[in-house]
Specification:
Strand content of chain A: under 5%
Shape of chain B: elongated
Number of domains of chain A: 1
Order of helices and strands of chain A: HHHH
Radius of gyration of chain B: 20 Å
Oligomer: heterodimer
Number of strands of chain B: 0
CATH topology of chain A: 3 helical TM bundles of succinate and fumarate reductases
Distance between the termini of chain A: 62 Å
Shape of chain A: elongated
CATH architecture of chain B: Up-down Bundle
Largest sheet of chain A: none
CATH class of chain A: Mainly Alpha
CATH class of chain B: Mainly Alpha
Distance between the termini of chain B: 60 Å
Strand content of chain B: under 5%
Largest sheet of chain B: none
CATH superfamily of chain A: Fumarate reductase/succinate dehydrogenase, transmembrane subunit
CATH architecture of chain A: Up-down Bundle
C-alpha cells in the first residue's frame, strides 16, 4: 500500500474530448465489437455448410428485428474500423501526423463511415425488397 | 543506446517480451490484407441479401469466392485475436482473470477459424 497520497497523472475524464483521442477510443471499441461480429460470421458459414434447415435458422435470426439491429451495428463498426484502420496504416508510414492533417482525416473518416454505412443499408434493404 | 545491454540481445532485437515486433507486424500484415478483403466481403454480403440457400452455397463454392472467403476468415480471426489480446493486456489487471481471458480468446478464435475453414471446405467439396 502507498504510505502517502502521491499525485496521480491526469485521468481521462479531466481532458476535454478531442477528435483524435475520441476516434482512437472508438477504434478500439469497434475492434472489440467486430471481433464479436466475426463469430457470427463463422456461424453464417457453419449454417450455410450445414444445409437448408440450419441456413433457414440463421436467416430467421438475421432477419429478425434484433438480428437486423445487430447486423446494422456490426456493419457500422466494420466500416468505421476499416476506414480508421487505413488512417492508422498511413500514420505507420509517417503520413498525416501533423495535428491539422490528423483532424482532417478524422472528420473524413466520420463522414465516409456514415455515408458508406447508409449506402450499404440502402443497397441491402433494396435487394431484400424492403425499400 | 544503453551500454548495459548485452550486444547479442541488441543484435537479436527481441526486447523484454522476447518476441520483438512480431505481434505488431502480424497485426499490420493482416490489417493490410483486410483493407482489400473487407470491401470484398461487404459487397458480397450485401449481394447475398435475400438469396436462397442453394444459390448462396453455389456462390461460396466457386473457387474464386472460396479462396477470398478463406483469406478473409483467416485474416479476420488472426487480426481479431491479436487485437483482443492487447485489449485484455491493457485493461484486465487481475492475473488469474487475465490468463483465463487470454486463453478463452485464443481458443475461441482458433475454433471459430477452424469451423469457418471446415465449413468453406464442405461447401466447396459438396458443390
Amino acid at each position: 500500500m502507498a504510505s502517502q497520497q502521491r499525485p496521480l497523472s491526469p485521468h481521462l475524464q479531466v481532458y476535454k474530448p478531442q477528435i483524435t483521442s475520441t476516434l482512437s477510443i472508438i477504434h478500439r471499441m469497434t475492434g472489440v465489437v467486430n471481433a464479436l461480429g466475426a463469430l457470427l460470421m463463422a456461424w453464417w458459414l457453419v449454417a450455410l455448410a450445414g444445409g437448408e434447415s440450419s441456413y433457414a435458422q440463421f436467416t430467421a435470426v438475421a432477419g429478425s428485428v434484433p438480428g437486423q439491429i445487430a447486423l446494422f451495428a456490426f456493419s457500422a463498426t466494420l466500416v468505421y474500423h476499416l476506414l480508421n484502420g487505413v488512417r492508422h496504416l498511413f500514420w505507420d508510414i509517417g503520413w498525416g501526423l501533423e495535428i491539422p492533417q490528423a483532424y482532417r482525416s478524422g472528420y473524413t473518416v466520420i463522414i465516409l463511415a456514415t455515408a458508406l454505412t447508409a449506402l450499404l443499408w440502402y443497397a441491402g434493404l433494396s435487394a431484400g425488397g424492403a425499400v | 543506446m544503453s551500454r548495459l545491454r548485452n550486444p547479442l540481445a541488441i543484435a537479436r532485437g527481441l526486447g523484454s517480451a522476447k518476441d520483438g515486433v512480431s505481434h505488431w507486424w502480424a497485426q499490420r500484415v493482416t490489417a493490410i490484407a483486410l483493407v482489400f478483403l473487407v470491401p470484398w466481403f461487404i459487397v458480397t454480403a450485401v449481394s447475398l441479401v435475400g438469396v436462397d440457400h442453394v444459390n448462396t452455397h453455389a456462390f461460396i463454392a466457386d473457387p474464386f469466392n472460396a479462396t477470398l472467403m478463406l483469406a478473409f476468415v483467416l485474416s479476420v480471426f488472426w487480426h481479431a485475436r491479436l487485437g483482443l489480446q492487447v485489449v485484455i493486456e491493457d485493461y484486465i489487471h487481475a492475473p488469474g482473470l487475465e490468463i483465463a481471458l487470454q486463453l478463452l480468446v485464443k481458443f475461441a478464435y482458433a475454433l471459430a477459424a477452424i469451423a469457418s475453414v471446415v465449413s468453406i471446405g464442405r461447401i466447396v467439396f459438396t458443390a
